Fold:
Amino acid sequence: MYDGRNIFTYPYPQRLQMSLEDKLKKGITDAFNAIYQFEISAADLALQPTRKEFEGAYTFVIFPYLKVTKANPETSGKRLGEWLQANVAEVEGFNVVKGFVNLEISHKAWIYALKEIIDQSEFGTLPAKNEKVMVEFSSPNTNKPLHLGHLRNNFLGDSIARIFDACGYEVMKVNLVNDRGIHICKSMLAYQKYGNGETPEQAGLKGDHLIGKYYVKFDEAYRKEIAELVASGVDAEKAKKEASSIVEAQEMLKKWEDQDPETVALWTQMNEWVYQGFDRTYERMGITFDKMYKESQTYLLGKGIVEEGLEKEVFFRKENRSVWVDLTEEGMDEKLVLRGDGTAVYMTQDMGTSDMKHQDFPFDKNIFVVGNEQDYHFKVLFSIMKKLGRAYASGMHHLSYGMVDLPTGKMKSREGTVVDADDLLQEMFDTAKAHTEALGKIENMELEEANKLYEMLGIGALKYFLLKVDPKKRMLFKPQESIQFQGHTGPFIQYTHARIAAIMRRARALESSLDFDAEKISILDRRESELIYRVTDFEKVIAEAAREYSPSIIAQYAFDLAKDYNGFYQEVPIFNEENKDLMAFRICLSMVTARVLSRSMGLLGIDVPERM
RNA sequence: GGUCCCGUAGUUCAAUGGAUAGAAUAGAAGUUUCCUAAACUUUAGAUGCAGGUUCGAUUCCUGCCGGGACUACCA
Structure:
């Protein structure tokens, strides 16, 4: 992208140390000091964007301070506004509507604010914090391929990792794979019975899909057995436990735990296929991990912590030898942490894994991206780790997200209503391709570039669709709407970026005539100052997204910015030979917009094209 | 039953306690000799119900009604 430095020259005093907003805030603090000898706490002081119906750019709400000003809102606002206008260079004027003080900013202040951003190549990245964040996400099972629900998890986790990275944290992305257990044995058993040594190559399937096929086969056989048992008069609950398939699967699990060579060999082979399949899906999603953990290596951890907890009297043992923690004081129940036979439960494992992960990477924050059906589990886990005196426990956070529903209802693998991740990714690609070709956009494009574009658009549309919604909310996935490329979509933002890139290409051709003098741009269009306002807001938005653990804030922001830009430059001619200063200024503004769009989308894991 | 999450235009989503509740879609009507019409402009349409807190409530509190999750010596 064009860096704009050599087209943006004008007398510029010195590097601004403070953002426009910070200056205004300081101005307001000073004003209260000067007028009322009152110290406003910076935390309370909130500036908000002025609504479009009113004059001004920033609005200060004076209602909360009427006790200090001892006057009605209008008078107080007027006094504050007058002081600011007289003492703060950036404030050119003001108006007061009820208790709202709308501050009008000088065009020069806007231009300087823009210049400030152009000068900062690292704009959109906050200073390093010297804090470590571990983001754990994806966590697939190795008995079936990824589906739509995993996509929301993966995109959220990947995005939140990028956001924390941009906020100056050192980020470690980890994936804890669920590669053992009864459900894994189910597909192993079915493969052993019906597989005839089939390989992914022979089946023409990705490894994970091949294994998934046998998982389904197991379930079919299992349910048939249950039905037969019930028909012969066995109680349904009993039938579920006694059907031969499930009994065999349990035997197999036992063999696996006993390290039976044949079982372990089968397990190793099948997992290898699954990983090969997952790798392709991750690659297509553009997702990587810094470290993989496997439950087969961690499931025995945590028993030591149980001992420790008993010693510290955080846990207690019941008569049947099982170990529990009492969390009734925290408003929760008693919770099992070790079975009576001494075997681990999920919680045992997670306690052990927590310690291990903290040893591997001494994090200040540990974010678990896991669906909201596990809210209670994590509440309990965090509470236990605190009780055990783990200092890091206060940094553990469950990024809980809602289910993805289909118009037909909940996804159920048994009923075949799951949306397969690979299928969906491919469908997005195909739709992007068909759509782009129909619009005649690829006439001057090499095949390779075109394919890259379809991938960018298709995957981008999907990521955006899943990330634009507040994570904690349950969301509805409508296939037809997710592959929409118009409206509040990723491709809309990508399109805006590509348009600006086209302007840049043209600007480059005219480079010699692109100097401008800030003094000659006397009147900024209101919408132009709004654009600058929004752009200067970017770093605040990133910080907020990290604070709220919510990529949707970034998605909203990028869309609003793209929309503002499109709305404005649709009707204003940019290339106007008679007003070169204004033209050059607008090119700079476009350039900064493109950069911020690109960075925002980058935080969502979405690439942005130079042309489309 | 208990705990937690969610109820906003026909639909899918927004709104640190702030001004006349925003968008997008679907509906109606327009805009391409000019940088990219995957765009833009205009139009119509919503806070589940009842109280409370205050200058001001979609937001906070209480109750009710609806939807969902969790509530296993499963993971």
Q: What stands out?
A: The longest strand of chain A covers residues 170-177. Chain A is about 55% helix and 10% strand. Confidence is low (pLDDT under 50) at residues 1-16 of chain A.
